[in-house]
Amino acid sequence: MVEKVYIKNRPATFEYAIEDKLTAGIMLTGSEIKSVRNGKVSFNDSYCFFDKGELWIRSLHIAEYVNAGYAAHAPTRERKLLLNKRELTKWANKVKEKGLTIVPLAMFINDKGYAKLEIGLGKGKKMHDKRDTIKERDVQKEIKRHLNRY
Predict the structure, then answer these.
(1) Residue 134 lies in a domain
(2) Residue range(s) defining the domain that contains residue 37
(3) Are the C-beta atoms of residues 24 and 117 closer than 8 Å to each other?
(4) CA–CA separation, 103 vs 121, rounded Å?
(5) How does pLDDT run across 111-124, given as a tens digit for each residue?
């Protein structure tokens, strides 16, 4: 039985207020998909951008596969995201109008064995919003702690 691969970008939900989510395919090489299946993905400072009507992701670090040999890949190269034209134009208009950004939220392998990237349309949080998030998280932890006691 194959283990499920689900790698989250935890800081993304803290830094951004996510308004909408989509699941996109991602174009990977053979050594990249093997590294993803091993869970060797890092989202540090990664973001999505539009170039000539296509959506790309930059700074997504996929570690080199040990046994790749001559077919090794560059760990932080730009990768194309696969969405249909309607979704691309809809999100491109939102990014232009409202000043939103597209943030990678998670990477996973679906049932068919394809790598998918969950992306979100987010607006950057202000410092007071981040404090509210921390406060809310602490309250939830306290409630859970008290409920587990009894």
Answers:
(1) no
(2) 6-125
(3) yes
(4) 6
(5) 998 999 999 999 98
